[in-house]
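Protein 1 of 2
SEQ + STRUCT:
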Amino acid sequence: MRRPVALRLQAALATAAVGIAIGVTLPTPQASAAVGTATGYATQNGGTTGGAGGQTVRATTGTAIHAALCGRASSSTPITIEVTGTINHGNTSKVSGSSCNTADGVIELKQISNVTIIGVGSAVFDQLGIHIRDSSNIIIQNVTVRNVKKSGSPTSNGGDAIGMESTVRNVWVDHVTLEASGGESEGYDGLFDMKDNTQYVTLSYSILRNSGRGGLVGSSESDLSNGFITYHHNLYENIDSRTPLLRGGTAHIYNNHYVSLHESGINSRAGAKAKVENNYFRNSKDVLGTFYTNERGYWQVSGNVFDNVTWSSAGSENYPAGPNPTSNTTVSIPYSYRLDGASCVPDVVRQTAGANTGLRVVPYTHLRAHETR
């Protein structure tokens, strides 16, 4: 991180009182599923339904989450895990079983499928990351993941709040809050990272803040097997860069609110293509372009608002799209979506994004969709 992050986390979320013992996993009589249905690229490639149709259990520790995964009949048996309370290193241990492959000190979703993790009340993963590897059809909703470190103590998930790698397919992350307390020099890495063949992912109605790095798609200029990612109705606030960093692949980025991006924002590199429409950028620098490389990327832009955005001069390894961004590619979107006018975006995102907002979406019927695809 090239400069200190000015803001720090707000007061920690209070742990909700629950009437079950810590570490106990309780079957519930009725099957439940994620609230709402997947959107964006997570609807493609067969769709993303998580644990719909399977058993629902409740967990108050990381160990109990692992036990729920390991207690299934198979690694693909659908399950919804309702999480409440604070999940941390002290209550997260490896659990063994034929239907799981877990580890200490991280929520490990490895070599599994058909899982929903949804927060009930306040669900906080404190200094503990969520790692998705060799897995498919995963939903994560209504949780906060904070202060995950790659150096210092304790460490988890390579410093990523949510990280995906190694043949991951169909993940919907919705209404989550991902936050750090600084950048790499303080021990943190990315908030939402995808690499090594991760595809068909949607991040919606979420908050990413107070970090050096928002997230990446592709770990290097040679890791070009990732893509088909949708980002919509998210708040990126007080981030240095990577909102996101795209290396190859295709991304659809619409109706997001970006505030205080200190160094760069959407960084399309190495042949990546981004459709960037009806977003609201405020008090930020170099919010779109190719940065820190000569391996250029591409973008299609329309309907965005640039409010007090500054742009650096073009030069070697620095190719900002502004000050008057124009399209240099076209991107075809295969799914239908509602596109709100950019002027509405700050208000809509303020009222809907993040954990513990009631999983609200666009709050007012009078906020008419600007266009429908």
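Protein 2 of 2
SEQ + STRUCT:
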Amino acid sequence: MNRALRRAWSTRQNRPVHRRCTALAAVAAVSLTLAACGGDGGADQADAARQAAENPQSVTGTVTWWDTSDATNEAPAFRELVARFEQKYPNIDVNYVNVPFDGADDKFKTAAQAGDGAPDVMRADVGWTPTFAALGYLQPLDGTPALKDSDDYLQTPMLSNTYEGKTYGVPEVTDTLGLLYNKEHFAKAGITEPPRTWDDLRTAARKLEQAIPGTTGVFVNADAYFLLPFIYGQGGDVVDMDSQQITIDSPEVTAAIETVRDLTAEGTGATDTSANKYTNMLNGFKAGTTSMIINGPWAVSDVLTGKAFADPENLGVATVPAGPKGQAGPVGGHNLVVYAGSPNLAASYLFVEFINSAESQAYAAAENNTMPTRRSVYERPEIAQNTVISAFRQPLEGAAPRPPAPGAGDLYDIFTPFYERIIGGQVSIADGLRQAQQKAKGAVPGFES
């Protein structure tokens, strides 16, 4: 089967073509064990790094890449980059697999723990990287081509890739949450500037619903990650790094949820606790039946397909409003990481280097309206003149880094069902937060709950 047919078959099935034999799986398991024991990677890893750096065209093999980007709106750009990589390195095949983001972390951990089925390279959420590294599932990239021109990376996105003095990934894309709004709606309601505080947002939402009958002023996603700007506005977080405590049941989180409740009351806004809450939020905004949402740059390409934004200039982007003690969205994004048990380390290093080069980042950012992680990319004309990327620069500059504690990224999934029940009225704030705090016990090793 030739390369094109093989890639098409793999994509159509949405799963990797299984090329590894049992012996390679055993090698992967041994490599993983060495990594988990905290070794320096061994001679094989050093040889792979040396070969990739000194004689890249001699590298052969197959790189399986789990890409967790949006299959419809973002993945096409990455497929194109894969084709460009294979053209540059004809002796390396890429087995591209688009893996749904939800559940991808558990899928990777299951495969890595079994020593069979894990990809060579993965697009991992910034919150997953320290967790994977602590478990011994990632290959350190220090001294490899994967870290080429690392001083070009923005400091904050790079922070999520280091753990105990080693570098386990490179930041592929960064983001934060911002306030997206419909400029035409604002004009009809006589609103001249985006709201600066949550009180301003409440006032604006009420004006919008009065001026445009049938419109929802603001839609707030009932997801724990989307609660973070409200928590930051109260001066809190879901963990306290200084005291090493999980702080889901803190007064700051309580106050944040009270703000959300107020904003989603009848006559102001709405929320949704169903499994389709994110999609429903996005669809309402695209259709012009919702005036404001909180979302990130990853959603912009999809937003611009909606009839309300047939004119892209109608989309407004601003920093999330401020609470009484702060104003920030969380720093999000994705890193490229290499599996510790990969039998194709040299090829994987070259793949990461290529996909995350300044040229590749500029291409993907321009195609997807996403935020690059390399400083130099922002100076390129196609990025500097991109109005969406420019609009998110200000929210990103004031964004709050996510806690670097292994396991902290799992807290959002743990917390969300309890947050949904609180917002849906099935449980009080106090009881819901207490239950979530108990459920989170042990999720962040070394942290009390």
